[in-house]
Each structure stands twice: as structure tokens, then as C-alpha cells.
Design a protein that fits this description.
The chain has 95 residues and is mainly alpha-helical. The protein contains three helices and two strands, in the order H-H-H-E-E. It has a domain at 4-39. Helices cover 39% and strands 4% of the residues.
Length: 95
Amino acid sequence: MITGKDVEYIAKLARLTVEEDEQEHFAAQLSSILEYIEQLNQAATDDVPPTAFVSPEHSPMREDSEQPSLSREDALRNAPLQKQGHFAVPKVISH
């Protein structure tokens, strides 16, 4: 169970200011999160191979191959501003 003192310590590590009246509220929320993680840890995953992606179509290890893309005209079709065949945007850096 997370206590108000634990929240105070975590806040200090994160360089956050947590008011005294907020500590118990955050303690309850953090305790709830840890209880949920404990439930997830009890799930049977022995037969599930580790993976970072659910779908193999999104694997970063796929063969790198040339894919068709939009033409310049199609890409610029809905651009609010165009200039010489490119997106035109307002200047964001000034002197």
C-alpha cells in the first residue's frame, strides 16, 4: 500500500510539488495501479511468445522495399498554401 510519505518521496524524485492534501489522493491512485499490475502479473502467459507488435504487418524487421507513394500534386492537393510545388508555412524563427 502506497502512503502519503511514499507519494512525497516520489514527487521529490520527479521534482514535483504535491500539496499535503493531494498526497492521500495520489497514494490511493498509485495503490490502485499497483494492484492492477499485480493482477496482470498473475495472467498465464507461459505459452505466449514475447513480442513488441501484435500484428506482423507492422514489424520493423520487415524487408525494406520500395513502395508506391503520393504524387506531388496529390500530396499538395489540400495544402492551405503552396509555393513553387512545396508546402508553404509561416516563418517560425525570427531574428
